[in-house]
Structures are given as C-alpha cells and as structure tokens.
Amino acid sequence: MWHIIITSLPEMLVAMVQYTIPLAIIAFIFGLILAVITALIKFIEPSGNKLVKYPYMVIRAIFSFYVWLFRSTPLLVQLFIIFFGLPNIGVQLDPFIAAVIGFSLNTGAYASETIRSALLSVPQDQWDAAYTLGFSTPQTLMKIVLPQAVRIALPPLSNSFIGLFKDTSLASSITILEMFQVSQQITAKNFQPLLMYSLAAFLYAIICTLLSWLQHYLERRTSQYVKGSEA
C-alpha cells in the first residue's frame, strides 16, 4: 500500500500544482470580476432619464438572465456545452480555456448574488451621511459602501472559492489532466480505486483546510475594527 502511495503521490501533486490550483485561482479571479460587475448593474438604480433608463434596463435584464441561467443548470452540463457543444457552431476551445470559462461564468453568477446582498446590507444611513459630506454616488459606493460590503461578503465568497477548488475535479470530464483525472488514470493501472480516490480526497481536504484557515485569518483582519469582533 505504501509503495503505491509513494509512487502515485508525486504525479498527483504535479497535476494539482499544474492544473487544479491554477484553474481554481484563475477562474475565481475572472468570476469575481464578473460578479462585481453583475452585482453593481443589478444594484444601482437607473436615473429617470429615458435615454439612460431604457438601455440600462435592457443591460440589467441580460445580466439577470445570465445569473438565472447559470444558477439553474448543473456545472457539469455547462462544461459539456462549452467544450463539446460549441465546436458544433465552429467554436473550438482548448480544454483548460473551456474550463476557465465554465467555472468563471458559474462562479460569477453565484458570487454576484453574494455581493449584491452584501451591498444591500449596508445601512441607508451610510449613503445619507456620505451625501451630507458632499460625496457623489460613485464616491460613496467606492469609498464607503464597497469596503463595508467586502467585509460582509468575505465569508461566503471564501466558501465559494473552497467549493470551486473542489469542483475543479469536474474538469476531468473535459479531458484536463488535473489531480482527480490523474488518480483515475493511476487506478486504471493498479486497480486500487479505494486507495487512490481516498488519497485524492485527502489532498483535497488538506488544501481546503489551508483555505479555511486563510478565510478565518482574513475575517479577523477585516473585522478587527468592528465593535464586538475578535481582535
């Protein structure tokens, strides 16, 4: 048993460093950017000017449809459509690029609702106080509201990243040699599925535990000046 673990572990670690971790990080960054844009579009109320309001409402409807679509369909189906379906209309994507697109769009849809909820949780008094001091709406949003919303959204966004890291195992379904795919290939050679899949689960658990510790650290750092929080 130990011989199998010692010989298999380097291959799985290489796959994790080469594909699993970069895929999770890159997809989360792009997903977070998309989530912020989507949340702001759905959060900000358009002005009464019809020349601005109607185009803005169309844009908001498009982003609302995007969120509904990716929250209403399984991630695995989304990956299959992007990688196996798009070539039927002439769009051929590299497996890693397809995975980044799929995970980013899925993460962005879920995280946008987290960010929007965090923005809505900031009291209206904060806006009123900022306007009293002469801040414009963009200034109030960037300097007053968003910093508070970030602290509120940090725990659920951290959970989303941990979930995304685990979901990268689905990338094996579109031919990416990430850690789980490598464990499957090794299993096909040594016929030890329980051992190999348990080893993969152990490696996922280690990384997720480290991410959980980082989450708790960031929560303490961002809440250290909040009354009643732990230092």
From TrEMBL:
Keywords: Amino-acid transport, Cell membrane, Membrane, Transmembrane, Transmembrane helix, Transport
Transmembrane spans: 20-44, 65-86, 194-214
InterPro entries in UniProt: AA_ABC_transptr_permease_3TM, ArtM/GltK/GlnP/TcyL/YhdX-like, MetI-like, MetI-like_sf
SUPFAM superfamilies per the UniProt record, alphabetical: MetI-like (SSF161098)
ABC transmembrane type-1 domain sequence ranges: 17-212
Gene3D superfamilies xref list: MetI-like
UniProt GO MF annotations: L-cystine transmembrane transporter activity
Keyword Transferase: no
Protein topology in the membrane: Multi-pass membrane protein
CDD domains, alphabetized: TM_PBP2
Keyword Transmembrane helix: yes
Intracellular or extracellular location(s): Cell membrane
GO cellular component, one term: ATP-binding cassette (ABC) transporter complex
Pfam families per record: BPD_transp_1 (PF00528)
Family per record: Belongs to the binding-protein-dependent transport system permease family.
Designated name of the protein: Amino acid ABC transporter permease
Origin species: Companilactobacillus versmoldensis DSM 14857 = KCTC 3814
Organism classification: Bacteria, Bacillati, Bacillota, Bacilli, Lactobacillales
